[in-house]
Amino acid sequence: MLQPLWEGGPLFALFQPIVDLRRGSIFGHEALIRGPVGTPLHTPLALLELATREARLTEFELHCVDVILAEWRVLGAPGRLFLNLGSDALNAAMGGDRPCRFERALAKHGVDVRSVTVEITEQRHAGDVAALRLAVKTLQSFGGTVALDDFGEGHSNLRLWAELKPDIVKIDKFFTHGIAVSLEHLEMVRAIVTFAHTLGTTLVAEGVEDTDDLRVLRDLGIGLGQGYLLGRPAAQPTRTVTAPITEAIRDSRIAVMPQASQAVRPGVLRSLALIHAPALQPSTLNDDVSLIFQARPELHALAVIDQGRPVALINRQSFMNDYARLYFREVHGRRPCVAYANQTPRIVGIDDDVEDLVGILMSEDQRYLSDGFIVTEHGRYVGLGTGEQLVRTVTEARVETARHANPLTFLPGNIPISIHIERLIAGRAGFVACYADLNHFKSFNDHYGYWRGDEMIRLLARLAVRHGHAHRDFVGHIGGDDFLILFQSRDWQQRCAHLIQDFAVEALTLYDDAARSAGGIDGADRHGVRRFFPCATLSIGALCVAPGMLMHAEDVASEAAVAKHEAKLAASGLAVRHVAVSAHARSDS
């Protein structure tokens, strides 16, 4: 029974910090309710399940708010207080005469509403979205803020975000966990960040448990973070961020994203052959819809628009199956068609990237494949696309994207290399651009053939990746036996020396016994003259780039190429150059 929890007061709160990923400071705390320690009702899930069974969920949630506010007032913790409420509880707290129940609770405990954020926790579909929208606006009107919790999980979805317009959205840990090594998670979070920028929403990355994930999330522009790495729930709120976390946040080095993400998005929907199908009005009769489908057998669907903007989609097969049923046309033929439409169609802008539609292919709701999607320009209907078109276009886009990776080593090619250099320059991160090139590779390739030549290039690729830090150093393949490594590791010089040494040893395994004994092979040089060529070695020209010294990727590439030529003459195989004058100074001279 829940009643003893009210009477005996064994409920208490824990507070988990939410950290500002730009400043490295405490932004606020999320309050998490707990029941009696050592009992089955200690966890919030057990408490909420019991409250639901007893049909007292709203009452219980509001009582938890009272418990939390009482503790918060005494603690005097820094930053904002985040409170969890379901939609029904928020409606009840904000409804009625002013001051409403929520205002009275805040006044009772002396907590300023301007320091409070209410997290809407929806594990089930919000029943009355209009009422919830009103409750949100009411809270915002007198200074409170609203957060949408666990976005991407349960019923915390894009439509609810668009309708409620919360101040803050918390990205579910499913998307953020392991983002430093997951291209799929990275791209999904990128899309969330873009939507947040459009609506002016602040994002919180939940489930931050790894320093590499933290750096990627920071570099994606997510302002706030929460997770065990940043602080666990505790009875005493966190006052300051620990030194290692502050150091990671303020580290000027740019995170290296999962490699495939470096490719430029090539395709937009303007390249699709859209289906310019007639549009329906919400009041269009079912009989008229049937006539259109009969006259246009090529149409897979019809869009329903209201004042030029799409609101629903009618699938041909589904509609015509219903229309063919006994007595359907007699009973429903003169009724509006919108009742038989999918009122949550997939709508995309004509300038959206094709890759943004991958979610349709991955969705459990297969209607999106059979219905296709509605295409708009500036929000207004322009045509339809089919599931078949989508599959073909996404496939073509993926093939085009693959062109940005070297087909021999699958390392990023020239375009993603340039993109990462520009990121480093824009982020004012100091870095070292190392141009790696093989010595005597042509003679080896001519002597043993291109199959073994490819093996040597792949060997260099494996060693370069092995000697770089996965999340700090970027390894790119320019082409042939030319590679560019963009180091942010502070021990880059040692890494280069080891790379040169390891290549010299492992490359020998690609020669035959006679060549190894002789220390090289006989062959023709570029002029056709026969001479002796030593076994292949590696030269690295290193260009040290301080923040603000160079402005464009082309500058970095050309200066690094000069360093490479100097490395060819160095006994160690490594030559180091420093940019002598800033790009600004050179442009003024």
UniProtKB/TrEMBL annotation:
Domain EAL span(s) in chain numbering: 1-247
Record-level Gene Ontology MF annotations: cyclic-guanylate-specific phosphodiesterase activity
GGDEF domain residues: 429-581
Name of the protein described by the UniProt record: EAL domain-containing protein
PROSITE patterns according to UniProt: EAL (PS50883), GGDEF (PS50887)
Superkingdom of origin organism: Bacteria
Classification lineage: Bacteria, Pseudomonadati, Pseudomonadota, Betaproteobacteria, Burkholderiales
Record-linked InterPro entries: Cyclic-di-GMP_PDE-like, EAL_dom, EAL_sf, GGDEF_dom, Nucleotide_cyclase, Rev_trsase/Diguanyl_cyclase
Organism: Variovorax guangxiensis
